[in-house]
Amino acid sequence: MDVKEAAKKAAAYTADMETLTKPDEKALFLSGSGFAIESTRFDDSHNCWEIGVGFVREIDRRSNANGMVFGNQEPLRDLRTYKTVTISDDSGEVVSYE
Predict the structure, then answer these.
(1) Which of 2, 36, 61, 96 has minimal CB crowding within 10 Å?
(2) CB of 49 within 8 A of CB of 42?
(3) Can you tell me the distance from the alpha carbon of 21 to that of 5, in angstroms, rounded to the nearest whole number?
(4) Alpha carbons 48 and 92: distance in angstroms, whole number
(5) Where are the domains positioned within the chain?
(6) pLDDT (tens digit, 9 = 90+) per residue, 59-93?
């Protein structure tokens, strides 16, 4: 698997995980959450890809909007969630999402 395939798999897996309760919103998640591939790394010792992803969850956006009322708004950048998706190069399967 090359880095582009690993990144695509990480994006799809992240969308699946973050929309488990609303599966019809997968496309909206990727386009509306500020989703980005933040980093890519191949771990030779474990023969796996580590793909860093970042996004802003809807609940964090709502919390931030509520904070605006009280003058406590944080930049969305500070509300980003970061995850590492680890993918086995042998099987192509996601082995962890942390």
Answers:
(1) 2
(2) yes
(3) 26
(4) 9
(5) 3-97
(6) 666 655 544 444 555 554 568 899 999 999 999 99
